[in-house]
Structure formats: C-alpha cells, structure tokens
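Annex B, item 7. Sequence and structure tokens for protein A, then protein B.
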Amino acid sequence: MDRDQSWQIIAEQRLSLADLLDNLSDADWETPSLCAGWRVRDVAAHVAMAPQVPNLAAMIADGTRARGSFHRLNHDVAVRHADSRPGEQIVAELRRHAYSRRLPVVTSYRNILFDILVHGQDIAIPLHRRHPMPPEAATAGATRVWAMGWPFWARHRLRGLELVATDTGWTAGHGAAIRGPIDALLLLLTGRTAAALPQLSGSGVTRLPAPHTRTGHRDPDSALGGSHR
C-alpha cells in the first residue's frame, strides 16, 4: 500500500472506531482492554491523541515524569487524557482528526497504519464487538511488524515457525506452520497471542511462547515506538 492508500485506511479506521465507541456504556469504557493495565477508555484516548502532536516542552516534561520509560510515558499520558474528558469528547476527537496526517516525530505512517488496526482490536475484542480489519491493510501491517526489531521482536519470538495467512497470500518465517487469517496473524505478531489463538491452526501453534499476561501484551503504544520510520 502506498502512502495515500495507507492514510485513507487510517482515516476510515479512526471513523469506524468512533462509531464503535459511540454506543458504549459507562461500564464498557472501564473494561480492561487487550493491553494489561489499560482500559478501553485509555486505548481510545491514546488513538485519539496520535494526531494531536504535543509541543516539545510538553514532551520533555512528560518524559521527565516518566523517568525516561517509554511505556510509562505512553500509559501515563493516555490515562491523563482519558480521565480528563468524557467518552463523548474522545469520540469527537477521533472524528475531528480522522483525516489528519500529523505524526509524532518518532514514527511514520506505516506504523500508524498497523497501530490503528491493532488498537481497534484491543478495544473491540474484550467488548465482544466486531471491528473488521481490511485484509490489504492488515497484510501491510504484518509485513511492517515482521521487518521491525523493537518493540515486538516478532522474528525472534516466532523463530522456527512459518506464518501462513489463509485469506491472503502473505507468509513469513520458516519452520512449523501456523495458519490463520491475516488479522489474527497481525495480533500474534504484535504480542496479542491469547487473542489470536482461537483463529490459529497448524503444528506450530503448540510451539508458540506462552503469553506473559492475559493477552501476552503490555503496552498499546509499542507500534509508535523508537525510530522505525
């Protein structure tokens, strides 16, 4: 997918996520997401904040408060944003900035693409809602994550395994096969192992590393991490 196609999908996914969030109850907003320690409200706030790039002074201040921890920084900023406004305002922000192409300096549109795809599932799956990933975009996301090192280390975690998408032509790795739809493979690649497992088959499934948490993933913003541009 080229840059313009990617940004179009990003906009569509922001808008469809806003639609999903529109009808949530107060309890839904407080539901734990796929990311341990993050509520649905926090992940939604994080997604809404992505195109609202803070100024340098604010970034330095937040980094100082987080003592240099990237994961703590993302968590604390998202929670602060989530707790300072009602859900309706977070939804409005998603819609208002849906077509924005502003980016934090540490990332690129390629990362924002799989970021919005995966975070949509972080929210939808615990709420038992359907939030489909466009297969072409999920394929681009899987390719991107496989090529990255930090923060997912997918090639290292899944070494000795061959990932085979059953709904696209995407494959990666060598070894015992793991088959599944491309959206499930993208969840696996980004550490959401437990969420992906029900859709996976093949001899390699039993060789998957055990998740460290309920979902095998701690931080929803790892897609924006580092200088993977």
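Protein B:
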Amino acid sequence: MTDRAALAALTAEIVACRRCPRLVEWRERVAREKVARFRDETYWGRPVPGFGDPEARILLVGLAPAAHGGNRTGRVFTGDASGDFLWAALHASGLADRPASRRADDGLTLTDTYIAAAVRCAPPANKPTIEERDACAPFLAREIALLTEVRVAVALGAFGWDAALRAFAELGHAERPKPRFGHATEVAVGPYTLLGSYHPSQQNTFTGRLTAPMLEEVLGRACRLVEEIGRTTGAE
C-alpha cells in the first residue's frame, strides 16, 4: 500500500520548492500580471504537485504546468486546452469521473491513475533548461517509489518519456540503449511498462497529429496492461 503520509509530505516539499531562480521569477510574475481573461482570479503561482489516486497502477507523465493552466489553478492539466483534451480521454477510458476540469476544487477524481509533470513549475515558452529539468528530476523518482502500485507509465510527449526513463534509472531500472520515443511505443523497463503518446498540446491536437481516438487507444492499452498484470499476479 502507498504510504499516503509520505506522499503528502513529498507534495508539500514540491509546493515549497524554490530551487530554480528563473522558474520562480517567471511563475510568480505570471501570477501577478495575469492575462485579461483571468484578471479576477488568484493564481497558484507555485510548483504544481502530482494529482490522483494514491493506489494508482497507471502513471501519466507530462512536461510542465502551463503558465495560465496549472500555474493558475494549482492542479496539473487543469484550466487549459491540453487538460480539456486529456480529461475527456481519461473519462472516455473510465479513468476520470468527468470529461472536463477547469478548477482544482471541482471535485474531479481519478481512478487507478496518477498524473505528474517532469518539471513542476511553468517554464517560459514551455521550455525548461537542462539544469531546471535535472533539479526537478528527483521529485518524479521519489513519487514513483512511493506510488507502489504503479506498473504502467504513459509519457505524454518526448520530454515526459525521457523523464520517466531517467526516473526508472534512478530507481535501478535502466534500459540501454535508451528506447526512442514514439506514439504508441511500448517498452518494458524493470517492473514497469512505458507507453508513449504525443502530448495533448494544441500544436498536436489542432493539427490532427494527436486525435482523441489515438490518445484513448494508448490509455486503453494501459488499462489492459494493468489488468493483465493483475491476473498474472493473482495467479502466482
């Protein structure tokens, strides 16, 4: 069983993090200056922790919070177009109790699923530096170690793919040569299976590079995998 107290302590540590001066300055400036459509809202303006079912068998790994999405709402993939696309797919796959989420306090719940970002602060132009990536990396490895039921990870984009592989390596499960990212790519890494999906960014969804059926198929594969693992474990 997941140590929920330890997971809550890690969440608090993530939220309090100020390791990266450029990201701290950017996230806080965005929270002060806002944009016109959200001018009456109070922005979160801090690192965004993971969210979901502590007993999840499926972990989703994204890139980073959006400046006016997670950096505003305080919950990953909440309040922006990428989140709208993702929640709809999670709901269609039976992993979320509703198809949309605009606020962190809207009561949305995930089943068997936990979502985290490789970088916890909103980066300028959605591009963290290598140093910022590396400063944040231990959080994901520690999260995975605490989420003891996780068996399948779904990387949303190449950045999330690389972050998941680095986290697995930190936990003693390195793959050489490094598996290459691709949509619907599947690779076994120690006790985990890593699946790839294009990121649900507007750049991908508006151009049709990623469609709802494509994302739902990857999520469906994740669901089938954990069920297969569960049957095998039960048989043993």
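Comment on protein B: The beta strands are 51-52, 58-62, 113-117, 152-156, 186-189, 192-197.
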